[in-house]
Fold this sequence. Notes:
By secondary structure, the chain is of the alpha+beta class. It has one helix at 13-67; strands at residues 71-76, 85-90, 93-99, 105-106, 114-117, 127-132, 138-143, 150-153.
Amino acid sequence: MxxxxxxxxxxxxxxxxxVLGIISILLTFSLVNLGGYRKITSKIDSEILxxxxxxxxxxxxxxxxxxxxRGHIYFNSDNNSLNNSMTLNCSSEQINKLxxxxxxxxxxxxxxxxxxxxxxxxTASSCTIKFSDREGKIHEISMCVGTEYVDIKN
Length: 154
């Protein structure tokens, strides 16, 4: 006859420590990778936005020159970063709009309210457009007076 031993139901301390150790290692790797992913996406989005602003300004100049009309580029900034954008208006009509990605904020200090473009596609004033990315890093785009020169500075 066999004697059946009654086994306690549950886990031993070694099993619990081993499982918690494995879970903590996996969680650490996933958090490190997630932080790196956020940093990379923020960097890529800031480069894309810099190039988009540059193209927006140049396309606005070209539009005014081709249609022989004056235009204004307005900066719409909001502290909660949901409504940050640039718009091209000609004769009180909105022609084009560039929306900023979520988490990107226009820096208002020393930035003009608008950029004037004459009918020849030339800007009357120089300015520096500043915006901060999701990581808080400031990016600058400088525009010279009367030329086609617009420069991205990091």
